[in-house]
Design a protein that fits this description.
The protein has about 475 residues and is an alpha/beta fold. It has 2 domains: about 10-315, Alkaline Phosphatase, subunit A, CATH 3.40.720; about 325-475, Arylsulfatase, C-terminal domain, CATH 3.30.1120. It is built from 13 helices and 13 strands. Strands 1, 2, 3, 4, 5, 6, 7, 8 and 9 form a 9-stranded mixed beta sheet that branches. The protein has a 4-stranded antiparallel beta sheet with strand order 10-11-12-13, covered by helices on one side.
Length: about 475
């Protein structure tokens, strides 16, 4: 891009991928097109969604706000029907108001699911064509690119692939929903990578082969879209982003606040800007950082009330990144409210209901994959508070909340979580708890957060304790 070019923006996203790509060092996944894109882009190694399921995660991605703020606390299709409080907060609306041609192809699940023309009018798209498998999405995207190239106006094109979401197939056994649909074939050509949080057994390997096939299928679609962009001569004028909504649709991943539930691939190709090629950024990033990053890359002002921070200084100047990332779950197939805060070394999860340890994301009666830490014949209830040492226990299997050695960490993390919940107007911070567990969770946060301390003597070094101090440290380091 030249200094006088108004960049185009192409956002490619898919369902339920997590970081299950060759570019993220998964050796048995065949994803050459996304791996090639990553090699010429900035790849964020430790990026997270704000929620471990579709609609709340996507609402955060496209508005730059947390679900508690934007209103999407659950799925946006019937019978759930959650919706954005302010549809004009969508990225498409922001870009259309400054002259961008805007179009959506494929997956739309970040606001109330309505007819395409209604979605377009509400979110700020000139045209919306939802639905379709990979080949339909590729065909429609090629058409959108052709028309955009002919206008000469800068464009925003949002392209969502359904794959690798679980999809019914005639090949599925009764009680099972796999990853194949009617067009995907299993792929174990390079073997199987069974995630460490699952038992490595024949059932898991069968499921992973299907998942690998679905990822390969989606990757081919991404390759076709990028090839069309190049053929039209738009490569050097277009910022390309690839990401996903949340983690893999496997037990102890999707629908949980453990890292496998909220981890996401995040790849950005920015032609013409130094430092945006062949880079891997190890520090934490959140989906709420994407919108302010894109606005800065496009040369547009960012609203001052967004909770995220542009990643441009992180990439271009080595500025410090955020201290914490936050996650939340409210409604998926049932109400299971929980909140999390993650630092570079620790994760705190607070469970506000007595739901099972992990919500089932398989959409199946019969499970082929089982959690590695499964114990006993029954489904246990979650504990109120979980604390994990990610350096010693990266798979979050040993809860150290009762270990006095982690007392200072627990205090810090609880303060950060409570401050974030307060700032987002979280409905869980209510004076009328919904249950004994809800009351227990609130009591923990109150006990773990010390009262505000007097300001430090200006002549002495010190840091004010409590949520306000945590917020200030977050601002300074984010």
């Amino acid at each position: 891009m030249t200094a006088t070019t108004t960049p185009n923006l192409l956002v490619l996203h898919c369902h339920d991928l997590g970081r299950f790509l060759g570019a993220y060092e998964v050796p048995t996944v065949v994803s050459p097109h996304l791996d090639a894109l990553a090699a010429e882009s900035v790849l964020f190694e430790t990026a997270f969604a704000t929620a471990p399921h579709c609609s709340p995660a996507r609402a955060s991605l496209f508005t730059g706000t947390y679900p508690q703020t934007n209103g999407v606390l659950g799925l946006t299709h019937d019978p759930f029907g959650w919706d954005l409080n302010d549809p004009s907060s969508h990225l498409a609306h922001r870009l259309r108001t400054v002259g961008y041609r805007t179009e959506l192809v494929g997956v739309h699940h970040e606001s109330r699911v309505l007819p395409d023309d209604v979605v377009a009018a509400r979110l700020g798209f000139d045209r919306v064509r939802t639905g379709g498998d990979r080949d339909v999405v590729v065909e429609r995207t090629a058409d959108a690119l052709d028309r955009a190239a002919a206008t000469g106006r800068p464009f925003y094109l949002q392209v969502g692939f359904h794959e690798p979401h679980r999809t019914p197939s005639h090949a599925d056994r009764p009680g099972v929903m796999g990853f194949l649909g009617e067009t995907v074939r299993p792929d174990d050509s390079l073997g199987h990578t069974v995630p460490p949080y699952l038992r490595d057994d024949p059932g898991a390997r069968e499921e992973i082969a299907e998942l690998q096939g679905a990822v390969r299928h989606m990757d081919e679609g991404v390759g076709s879209v990028l090839a069309r962009l190049d053929a039209l001569g738009l490569r050097e004028d277009t910022v390309v982003v690839f990401t996903t909504d949340h983690g893999l649709a496997l037990p102890r991943a999707k629908c949980t606040l453990y890292d496998p539930g909220v981890e996401v691939a995040l790849i950005m190709r920015v032609p013409g800007r130094a430092g945006w090629s062949g880079r891997r950024v190890p520090d934490q990033a959140s989906h709420v950082d994407v919108l302010p990053t894109l606005l800065e890359l496009l040369g547009l002002p960012s609203p001052g009330d967004l909770p995220g921070h542009s990643l441009v200084p992180v990439v271009e100047t080595g500025a410090p990144t955020r201290t914490y990332t936050f996650g939340q779950l409210n409604h998926h197939i049932y109400y299971d409210p929980k909140r999390s805060v993650r630092s570079a070394g620790h994760k705190l999860i607070v469970n506000f209901s007595n739901a099972p340890l992990a919500m089932d994301p398989t959409q199946s009666w019969v499970h082929r994959s089982l959690p590695a830490d499964l114990r006993g014949p029954s489904v246990a209830s979650s504990t109120a508070v979980e604390l994990y040492d990610l350096a010693q226990d990266p798979h979050e299997t040993r809860n150290v909340v009762a270990d006095p050695a982690y007392g200072a960490v627990l205090l810090e993390m609880a303060g950060a979580l409570l401050a974030w919940m307060s700032e987002t107007g979280d409905h869980l911070l209510t004076a009328d708890p919904l249950s004994d567990r809800h009351r227990e969770a609130l009591a923990f946060l109150a006990r773990a957060t010390p009262p505000p301390q007097p300001p430090a003597d200006p002549g002495r070094s010190g840091v004010t304790a409590g949520p306000a101090a945590v917020r200030e440290r977050e601002r300074e380091t984010a």
